[in-house]
Each structure stands twice: as structure tokens, then as C-alpha cells.
TrEMBL record:
PANTHER family: PROTEIN YJDM, PROTEIN YJDM-RELATED. NCBIfam families: phnA. SUPFAM superfamilies: Prokaryotic SH3-related domain, Zinc beta-ribbon. Pfam families: YjdM (PF03831), Zn_Ribbon_YjdM (PF08274). Residues 4-31 form the Protein YjdM N-terminal domain. This is Alkylphosphonate utilization protein. Belongs to the YjdM family.
Amino acid sequence: MENIPPCPSCKSPYAYEMDDKLVCPECGFEWIAEEEKVEVGLIVKDANGNILSDGDSVVIVKDLPVKGAPKPIKAGTKVKSIRLVEGDHNIDCKIDGFGSMALKSEFVKKA
């Protein structure tokens, strides 16, 4: 017996092969084994739709006001070694002159 993955719909371990598809006997879900991709981890995209990963360098695309700071972070500022996190502000980083910061991925592009 081959290593058949569990059903992506109901997670049942009883899936079986039928012709070129995999079928779940519990919920009736059918899928093609070649199309199955298991995405592990967080997927974050920049302003241009490029996928970001931990350790990437990004460039800020618009001026960002910072609470408590006398001036905003300017567009074109390069940020090195980002870390991706869950939440609304999904990038943690350190910006020279500002310190630790949480950014939204929609305001950066991959460098």
C-alpha cells in the first residue's frame, strides 16, 4: 500500500485511490494527488505580490508616520533581515534611526 495522504477536507486517514484521483470515503471529497501541495508556514506577500520570507531585505514604498516620532520613515528606506509574524503588522524588523518596528507587508517591496 502506498503512502496516501489524509483527506484535505476532513483529515480522514482512510482515503483511497480511484483511477487518477484520491477519494475520501467519509466525506466524499475527491482530489488529484499531483495537485496536492502542503503549504507549511506563513505566506506573506509584498506590495507587488512577491512572496517574502524570513531574512529578506525590503524597501519601504511610501512615507510611514510613526507615533511618538518627530518625522516619518521615508519611502526608499531599506530594511534588512526581516522576520515574518502572524497578525495585521506581519513584519518585525529593526530600522536604523528608529529601532524595532512592526510593518504591514503592503507598504514594502522586496529588495
